[in-house]
Design goal:
37% helix; globular; two-stranded antiparallel ribbon; 4 helices; Non-ribosomal Peptide Synthetase Peptidyl Carrier Protein, Chain A
Length: 125
């Protein structure tokens, strides 16, 4: 896997290229976190193609947890997440999407799929 920055040169600011399509990309986190490239990840647990929000959250999980394989149905804590890492998920979600999310929501809606559904609900509120 080749680590990439948060904004690949071929993408518009705030986006990343996923299979030739541009999707929302996470912002860089302090401390030198490497933002994983979605195309290089192995995704399991999905019931079909992930949408843009699910891809965004998958990249956040993979980057924060330093994993190349993400099961989108497995909880954040089961994949090695903790309260400090939850802040690295929380901050880009709030900054990029402007949702009224709480850090505790990452533990309540702990999988990529659950958190995506919760964020969608907040966006529609």
């Amino acid at each position: 896997m080749t680590p990439t920055g948060p904004e690949p040169a071929s993408a518009s600011p705030g986006t990343a290229s996923v299979g030739g399509d541009e999707v929302l990309a996470p912002v860089a986190a302090p401390g030198g976190m490497v933002i994983r490239d979605y195309a290089s990840l192995t995704i399991t647990g999905a019931r079909g193609e992930l949408d843009e929000l699910e891809k965004f959250i998958t990249v956040l999980f993979a980057s924060v947890l330093e994993r190349d394989t993400i099961d989108v149905a497995t909880s954040f804590t089961d994949m090695g997440g903790d309260s400090l890492k939850a802040f690295s998920i929380y901050t880009p979600l709030v900054d990029k999407l402007g949702v009224d999310l709480e850090v505790a929501d990452i533990f309540i809606y702990s999988s990529v799929l659950e958190l995506s559904e919760h964020v969608r609900g907040l966006q529609g509120a």
